[in-house]
Each structure stands twice: as C-alpha cells, then as structure tokens.
# Entry
Amino acid sequence: MPKAKQRKNKSVIVRRPNRVIYAIAAAIVTFLLKAIYRIKVDTSAINDLRPPYILLCNHISNIDFLIGASAMYPQRLNFMTAALYFQNPLLGRLLTLMGCFPKQQFTADPSAIRNMMRVIQQGGVPVLYPAGQSSFTGQDTLIDPSIAKLLRLASVPVVALKTEGAHMGFPKWNMKRLRPSRITCHAYPICTAEDVQSMGDDGLYGKVVEALAFDDYEWQRVHRIAAKGSRRTEGLEQLLCLCPACEQEFTIQAAGSRLHCTHCGHTAEMDAYGLLHGSTPAAFDTPTGWYRWETAHYRQLMTPEF
# Structure
C-alpha cells in the first residue's frame, strides 16, 4: 500500500456518527434484515448500562457491521473499520460521517487506538471485531491475546454482541446472493471496568474468547433454521478442496446443493439447514468438520518425519 495513502487513513479523526444519516441508515438496514433474515435481537442484559463501554462482536459474516448497527440502535456506534475501505474517497467520507475510524489490519496501529480512546472520552461506544476478519468456515477464528491489554488501557465496561445464523444466510465463500433464513443477536456484559483492572491478562483474554466463540453449523444442528435457495454449495469448493474419500486435491466441484469429486465420484448434498449428507463413510456432516480434517491432513503432510 502506498505510504501516502496510509498517512491519509491515519489522519482520520473520529467523531460521533451523524445523527440523521445514522438514523436513516439504521431504519433501512433494520427493515431489510427483518424482511430477509427475520432478525431477532435481545439486548435486555445491558438495558441499564450507559456508555462509554467497548462493544466486542464475533465476526461471522461480511454484513456484521450492518447487523451490529441495527441490533444496538438507537445507540450510535463507532466502528473500527479496515483501513482499505477508506481508500475510496466517496466511501471514506461516508464512513467518516457514520463515525467509523480506520485500522490497518494485522498490525499494530496507534492511530486506531487513539481514535478508540477519543470515542470513549466522548462518551461513545467503539465497536471492535477482535478476530480481525470474517469467518470462512462458520466457526470462530483466532483472537490475538493483545486484546486484553487494549481493554485494560480503555478501562471501561466490555460488552459482547454475539451473532448466530449470519454465516448460513450470507457465507463468505458465496457472497453473490443472499440466502433468506434467520439471524439472532444477543448482547450481554463480559466484565465491568473494575473487572478489567483486577483480572490478569490470561483471565480477561479467556473471557473474551469464551464470549465470542461460535460455530454456526452446530447452532444449526440445534435450532434447525431452514435457508431458502437451491444454490447452497456454490463457492464452497474454495474452502473444501480435498476429497475426504480419495484424498485427491482440487477435484471437488460445487453445483446447486451438491459437492462432487471428479476423481472418485464421492458426493455430498447440503440440505436447507446447511448440513451435509455424503455418499461414503468418509463423509462429514458439516463443512466445518470437513475443513478441520482438511487442515489436519495438510498439517501432517508438512510435519517432517525423522
């Protein structure tokens, strides 16, 4: 990335979101989320909590910021946003009006921390996605332990907004079309300002990881929320590229609701609940389980034998 553009991102000074624009956007987004995903929100556990506090969210899909803004309204949120989105002048200006502030991904960014602290000093609510990127698998990804030090620096209450069902409705491996289903959101306190200061880094980190853990396919196994649409697996071959039956690479093809190995003929059908039904004993009943096996297989191949 050009250095000039990095300096431009870092010069963004965060402000409270524009009240009118934010209200209009929240109303439109809420209408669409209710119409497409029948979104259900429970924020009763934080009804008595007043800003400032930090809101931590699990990163389950690419529409999480829309879900968060809708779920927490009328509270206006300041989202920590990937700096690349500020490179577009028009989008960058809109994000700034909405109270977003940039963060260089996967590296320390002092300017983002300063902006977070400004939001807190203004009595606002900065929103962080500690995983740093949305999930490809429908399961939580690694959270950097440094989140504990950041929370200790802020020294305000910490709240979790946990979303479930969004991966099923808009998986990262297929963002060409929405899959009408159901999304649920549950907001609850992780710890008070006093807890943040009294707990050790390991204990605080553990509470964050526990609060934001998710597996959308296991959630589906319990709740059985059907997703509309017949093109359920299209794009899934980007994630599941190793056949569990013959262990050949890049032989998996996806079409409609079906995964098919061109080498051995193994097939798997995805039902309306996102669960897989395979043609061989080697089949997995969720993409997450298949991907975990795939990852373990490649890790074993990379481990030297002595």
